[in-house]
């Protein structure tokens, strides 16, 4: 079983491009082509149709996606399990959106290690798109992000309610001239732009998670932030909510794979829910 080839196949299937797959798996385009060719030879089927626009899965390729994903997932689990000290009976790979670590997940992880002494944790941070991909591909067991994952093998539920508020480091005056677009997802970005008819006059887009708030404070600019994420800055007066601007609902979700032990999943989700009860 060639896990490297399976990962390469899944990357090409997801991106629709051998070149993009090469970037994802840190290989040259020629290596990707050779891996796919060898895989097709071993399976005795053609997995992709290729043209100038990229690659598309054949019928056989579509059938191979699930077995390849399961094989990669099994290998990841095996690698993690065999490396665990004997004191641990379970493991969990959990990822969180950058913005959520400082405000929530760092404290939760410290408590979780105490509450689940027999569970080994592997924690990572990333943008929601990458977390979703890693969850689908089996590199993560669970993810906490502002977007739910819609996939037949993944369950999602709302963790807590939040809303995007327009905040400023200076107050209400001239906020349009100081407005910076902060990246919280394409759909919500389109909704904000359409409703308020605003564009970032500063010619700047930030995707820095909670650190975006620090930029707004230091540079005396304005942008949309999850209110609970910046409540401490609002309480201290470092940031101010711009008046007469609508809020946009922006709840956070916890998503996990269906093949995670059901009891462990429920216990972890319950632990996360308790940790955000004060928000």
Which keywords apply here?
279 residues, alpha/beta, Arc Repressor Mutant, subunit A, D-Maltodextrin-Binding Protein, domain 2, five-stranded mixed beta sheet, four-stranded antiparallel beta sheet, 46% helix
CATH C-level of the largest domain: Alpha Beta
The fourth-level CATH homologous superfamily of the largest domain is Periplasmic binding protein-like II
Shape: globular
Question: Any guess at the CATH architecture of the largest domain?
Answer: 3-Layer(aba) Sandwich
Would you give an account of this structure?
Keywords: DNA-binding, Transcription, Transcription regulation. The protein is of the alpha/beta class. The chain has 3 domains: 3-80, Arc Repressor Mutant, subunit A, CATH 1.10.10.10; 84-161 and 251-275, D-Maltodextrin-Binding Protein, domain 2 (3-Layer(aba) Sandwich), CATH 3.40.190; 163-249, D-Maltodextrin-Binding Protein, domain 2 (3-Layer(aba) Sandwich), CATH 3.40.190.10. It has 10 helices and 13 strands. The strands form 4 sheets. A 5-stranded mixed beta sheet has the order 4-3-5-13-6, sandwiched between helices. Strands 7, 10, 11 and 12 form a 4-stranded antiparallel beta sheet that branches. The protein starts with a helix and ends with a helix.
Quick recap:
The chain is of the alpha/beta class and 279 residues long. Helices cover 46% and strands 22% of the residues. The chain has 10 helices and 13 strands.
């Amino acid at each position: 079983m060639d896990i490297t080839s399976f990962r390469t196949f899944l990357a090409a299937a997801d991106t629709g491009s051998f070149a993009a797959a090469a970037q994802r798996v840190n290989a040259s385009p020629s290596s990707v082509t050779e891996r796919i060719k060898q895989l097709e030879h071993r399976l005795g089927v053609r997995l992709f149709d290729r043209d100038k626009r990229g690659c598309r899965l054949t019928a056989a390729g579509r059938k191979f996606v699930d077995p390849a994903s399961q094989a990669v997932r099994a290998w990841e689990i095996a690698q993690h399990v065999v490396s665990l000290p004997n004191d641990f009976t379970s493991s969990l790979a959990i990822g969180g959106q950058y913005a959520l670590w400082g405000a929530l997940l760092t404290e939760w992880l410290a408590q979780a290690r105490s509450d689940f002494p027999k569970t080994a944790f592997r924690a990572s941070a990333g943008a929601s798109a990458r977390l979703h991909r890693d969850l689908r591909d089996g590199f993560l067991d669970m993810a906490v992000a502002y977007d739910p994952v819609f996939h037949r093998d993944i369950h999602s539920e709302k963790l807590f309610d939040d809303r995007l508020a327009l905040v400023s480091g200076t107050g209400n005056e001239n906020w349009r001239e100081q407005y910076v677009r902060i990246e919280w997802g394409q759909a919500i970005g389109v909704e904000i732009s359409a409703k308020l008819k605003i564009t970032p006059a500063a010619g700047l887009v930030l995707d820095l998670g909670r650190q975006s708030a620090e930029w707004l404070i230091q540079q005396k600019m304005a942008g949309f932030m999850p209110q609970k994420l910046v409540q401490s800055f609002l309480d201290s007066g470092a940031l101010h909510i711009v008046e007469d601007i609508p809020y946009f609902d922006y709840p956070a979700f916890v998503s996990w794979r269906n093949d995670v032990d059901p009891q462990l999943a429920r216990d972890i989700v319950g632990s996360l829910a308790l940790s955000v009860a004060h928000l």
